[in-house]
Hints:
Elements: E1 2-5, E2 9-10, E3 13-15, H1 18-27, E4 35-39, E5 45-52, E6 59-66, E7 76-80, H2 86-99, E8 103-108, H3 119-133, E9 140-141, E10 145-146, H4 147-151, E11 158-162, E12 171-172, E13 183-187, H5 195-203, E14 207-210, H6 218-232
Parallel strand pairs: 1-4, 7-8, 7-13, 8-9, 8-10, 11-13, 11-14, 12-14
Antiparallel strand pairs: 2-3, 3-6, 4-5, 5-6
Amino acid sequence: MQIFYAHDIKNNTCILGKDESKHCIRVLRLTKGSPVKIIDGLGNLFEGLIVVPDPARCEVTITGTSSNFEKKDYRLHIAISPLKNQDRFEWFVEKSVEIGIDEITPVICKNTEKPGLKEERINNIIISAMKQSLKAYRPVLNEPRAFNDFAAGDFTAVKLIAHCNPGYDRKKIDMIYRRNLDAVILIGPEGDFSEEEISLALKNGFEPVHLGTSRLRAETAGIAACHSIYFINQ
Length: 234
């Protein structure tokens, strides 16, 4: 059964957007009466039947709803520097959504080489990864924030900063984080966080962690952190 995304479902009727409609009717060649599944990004998984197979405006009648589909008992927010290679940042977004991230904030650090992001493209990647991994909750992509502003933010979560500087008492994530707790994790750019940034984060309650003995690329570190939280919660 095919899975589609639609954010506005009312009165047991769903009108798929232009791109979803085209993929449904022109690419997959689904017809009237074909069963489909739809996610709305708000935690609902719908089952339905195509009633109007229009490639520009496909209409679906909803036949069943699963609310709070696979809702987790924790929230994971990763704040990560944009990368010089945009493809690597997009890879991080795709895989973190598949694993189970709830919020992504690009943070602009001292060593961030290329702060710009293609936000529309990244949001499309988020939706595609949701459908691929059957996630009913859409992760939030926040506006980029300066590191200092983000580190000083008020978070009711376990706050961690992953970095490579050996001059700090860095622990493994599972020595600090416990199951079913919300988490905010800082991941730095190529070149890592500066000494000043690490100090500021620690002053604001972030605890230093490492992700193993290997030196990881920033996007790999983000995935490792995401999977660590996921694994602890299984």
